[in-house]
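Q: Now give one record:
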Amino acid sequence: MTDDLDNRRPLAVRDAAFARWLARRLADAKASPDTISAMSVAFALLGGTLIMVSGVFEGFVRGLALIAAALCVQARLLCNLLDGMVAVEHGRASPAGPVWNELPDRVADVLLLAGAGYGAWTAGLDGGAALGWIAAVLAVLTAYVRELGRGLGQPADFSGPMAKQHRMAALTVTCVVSAVEPLWGGKGQMILVGLLVIAAGTLVTVARRTRNLARGLRERG
């Protein structure tokens, strides 16, 4: 994780008591921010796998897999929060921090969103896998446009409406609602709906960041 404050996502949750306590405990334990970043990929792999296999199960087991996946999504975000806090607030950033700041996030997005798509597919819904990959590619594009802007001398653009934290919130809600959709006879349809919302919102985000970048370059002359 890097200590580059110009490329740090603004998050109000950093001021929460639980976040400060966890970051302090990790720093006291000499935890590496880069290792915390890597753990986010582990949680994403587990979460994506749980969503993917949920489609082959019924009833309680399927619901349990989806709730566990939702917890993995939130654990991924918690790792993303804590790696930066340990690096910046506790001065443990490493020279390779910029790599660990970006690459695990892209891998985690793909694992979770593509995994969700396959979760709809294993539930028997055509088009689920394709929609998951579309959402995953668009998620990577949001970061690409942001980093392209930084490479061209523009400030990091974390605008939404479907930035990382919004995508993961939407995916968490999707998993929870999908876990109970058998109550009204559904199985997997809510995953498709959730992915459609994420993909559409992420497409708008890519377009918005691209517009902001083009405007910034024009204003700079």
